[in-house]
User: Fold these one by one.
Assistant:
Number 1:
Amino acid sequence: MPRLVSKKSNGNNSGALGFEATLWATADKLRGNLDAAEYKQVVLGLIFLKYISDAFEEKHAALAQDKSSDPEDRDEYTADNIFWVNKIARWSYLQGRAKQPTIGKDLDDAMVAVEKDNPTLKGVLPKDYARPHLDKQNLGGVIDLVSTIGLGDKQSRSKDIIGRVYEYFLSEFASAEGKKGGQFYTPRCVVQLLVEMLLPAPACAPPAGKPCSSRQAGAPYKGRVFDPCCGSGGMFVQSEKFVEAHGGRIGDINVLGHESNPTTWRLARMNLAIRGIEGNLGLEPADSFQRDLHKDLKADYILANPPFNMSDWGGERLREDVRWKFGVPPTGNANFAWMQHFIHHLSPTGTAGFVLANGSMSSMQSGEGDIRRAIIEADLVDCMVALPGQLFYSTQIPVCLWFLARDKSGKSIPSPRVRGEGQGEGKFRDRRRHVLFIDARKLGTLVDRVHRELTDDDIAKTADTYHAWRGDLPASGRQAGKGAGKYKDTPGFCKSVTLEEIARHGHVLTPGRYVGAEEAEDDGEPFAQKMKRLTAKLDEQFAESARLEKTIRRNLKGLGYA
């Protein structure tokens, strides 16, 4: 039975939750009569403005010390990829006016000025702080609260500090909004697992907060990462973190996204900007199925968490679409439309990892079984992972991870990777006509009564199993230079299965069907001896039961009931 721990004590995926949790608790008290959906625009917009203003004012102070530079020269900022911030939008100015009744209009004017001076932010920032039902005293309190983020030296004002707060607030708003909030937020531990599994394994496991050396990390990770339903951009943030942690540089990967919800699209743009990630999310929100803004893209990696069992996706207007290579998806469920959309956008050596409802692994209705069979027979399925329940804020529907690979031959992979003894550079092993099944349903730790998280150990166990099977994990785990990883089936957890065996199971991809039962622990006691001991114990319990029954009947008789 998983243990129940508090969110603060769970040191795995939530980071150091001390000050973030305190900030959230204080901010939530200032919400007033706003619901979480409205309030998130207020708070996240202010956090973003604080970030770009801090970066600007830090550069401004440095230029003011340099007599040869003009601190009001816009080119000095744009050359360092720092947003230009007009005087009326600088945080010091706004904080000084936080207690004024006109603070709502001041903030709206500031957001308009920032967008005007920085065309890449056009249409991104919230501009409704002056609305009457937003209590201006509470708004001033939020400004004072956000002012405490990033105080101190240059490092504590870094994008990572404010980025952590932004990410933590996203997760808390998702929890507060329930199902509605979960539409734009994928739990961090799920994103981390997808990223850790999909990208090539590093040659080392760096200490916390430190990257691998260039020698350990090998060739840098590069490629195009695409999320056609990107929500608030969490997949991109985790991908960049992975690259940086293993010797690469931010910007080594090219991120491209798509999001149909205008509010969520703006959240994603702000999230990427805070992290310093240049991403192409299109000039406006758009529906991936009806108006694909990246129609010609062939991506090296696809990471996605599409809406589960989406029924209203406009499939009746797309019956002849070029993307349906494996069968026309049903109009009442978009699961296999999303899957074929991902396949359509994969490069010849591309790989995809995405979340779907468990029904996608076994459903037979409306032609879904035929589409799944065609995808399996095309040898595109690389790995299936069954996840534990209660991971998502938005649904209790059980979910799984699919991993697809265009090329399983081992001759090439999408991007350069580390060298390992006994392996050619840039190669996985030949995995053709095999699929890895991982049953991770028993993993995870409850962080409250309704939500579970995967720990770092859970993520490492699952990802390392896949990398070892795929052939890009050194034998000694994540230590460099030891050769290819050695995979072995583990009853109850993982098994490598041929396509022929999958066909015998009707092309159902549920991991529990293949991995079998977990081996019982051997306590060293011979079976005959154990049976004799247990039988004697059972006789004792039967005798005790008979004695208690006689006592109870005697007592009832004394009371006149027998």
Number 2:
Amino acid sequence: MRNLDHSVIGNCRTAALVAPEGDIEWLCFPDFDSPAVFSGLLDEDKGGRFGFRLGEGCGCSQAYLPETNILRTCFTSGTAAFEVLDFMPRYHISGTEYYTPPEIYRILRPLSGRPRLRVVYEPAPGYAAEPVRHERHSGYILSVSQSDSKDTVYLYSSLDFNGILEGEELVLEREEFLLFSYHEKLITIDHARANLELERTRTYWLNWAQRSAKFEKYGELVSRSLLVLKLMSFDQTGATLAALTTSVPEVLGEARNWDYRYCWLRDASMSIMTLLRMGHPNAARRFLRFIRRIVRSKQDSFQIMYGIRGERVLTERELPHLAGFCGSRPVRIGNMAYAQKQNDSFGYLLDVIHIYYHFFDGTLDDIEEMWEIVKRLINIVRADWRKPDHSIWEFRARRDHFVFSKVMCWVALDRGAEIAAFLRKDEEERQFRAEAGAVRREVLAKGWNEAIQSFSQAYGTREVDASLLLMEQYGFISAADGRYAQTVDRVRRELYHQGLVYRYSHSDDFGRPRSAFTVCAFWLARALFVTGRKEEAETIFEAVVSHCNHVGLLSEDLDFATGRQLGNFPQAYSHLALIEVASLLSERKIWPSFIRP
């Protein structure tokens, strides 16, 4: 049975998942949200893959080159061994320009003996819906979709083309390379070029990682999480993806299979705030440019999520020809959640914009344009906070007065008031603070349930959910407030199970959840820490990170019984929360010098 024990390579334009045995099993070309050209992750038989085969008894080990997104896979068979270095080129060109072509280099280096291997090269464009023919040209193999002659990919290599296509056994006697590219190359591709791209890309990632805050405790986990968050940002626009995959199930064999290759304002804002705190202010600048781009006029509306170029319509459909991850259907592309009302979304965004105003320089027109966006967001919140919504959990068939949605409306109004005060807009500050006060009074009156001695998931209900743990983090309530401590206790009693945490335990549109939502365990660890239970917090944190795969990556969900990773992968939510809790447990201030919290 498949596991999410994959590694990830990428260059902020697209990314690939590499299995432990070296097969590329997921790659969308040319961009993160393009149709997959390798989707073996979702159909082992016909999804397509790109890897290597050795004889029986071979072994593999895998690790990233330190503080980079360059992957090293070592293969051994008897006395022979070789390594493969996988990467997508990314490096600085000039000004704010980076070289991020849609291509993957695979450099093969013999380590001992005379390694023998076969290349498995099975591109399957259009999510494996299009048959392919291969054409041998001078210098490359052209793979062409038989249903669309414009859908092509290129393979350059120092290995024999016939040997690659026929799956012949090859003897690795010197360094070789393979370059899989969406475009035809206009420069000579040889060993020198492959190694030049490797060193340029290695230098880029080392420089980027060097600018990150460092931790003695949990340092490697934090570093890998930061590198993953960076890799999941779309360089062309500044949008940040929730995850790199679609339709990896939350529970095997069930229908909770969604496409996460989009930019949720919630997830993106949290990711950007984390990168900002850890020493990467350019991530915030680029994300806010993305926000300005998607609301160019005063008539443009806001929604909870967008395509990575700002697309507003993300039509959801199924791909019935794919078997699904471990047979879990349906496979979906697109996500109908874009049409939902989630009143919490703008609180996270205004939290980031608040930081922008207080700690970053901007031109007058930038500041004025952002102020217009702030006012429009606040107007939406003022109009909607009393209305029911679908919540942070994106219930498809339920609207309610969810407590955490109201809390984040308060956050939006509170940060809006802070921005107005900074800009000396006294009347707006007064209005925003008055409205924030109204929200807070209502939540304290209607959100607290005396019968269960806790805040509840929604007004008038007895259920709790893990989002309530974040009430303190966003400043709505103090960690010293007994009501918060009691809520933490209630969530722990009801949702904590086998070292992990349910998001909620009641039935939803698809029945009762049966997997742990990874980020919720981090939220509980944080809540325990700030309420003085530091040993409990560390125990939970270490239990969660023990489920990281062999290269330190986490998915959306975890199986309670086995700890098996499930859900889309890697998940930004999971990694940003890991960083947050690791910083608390390290008792290290993580705001860099350019920000004064």
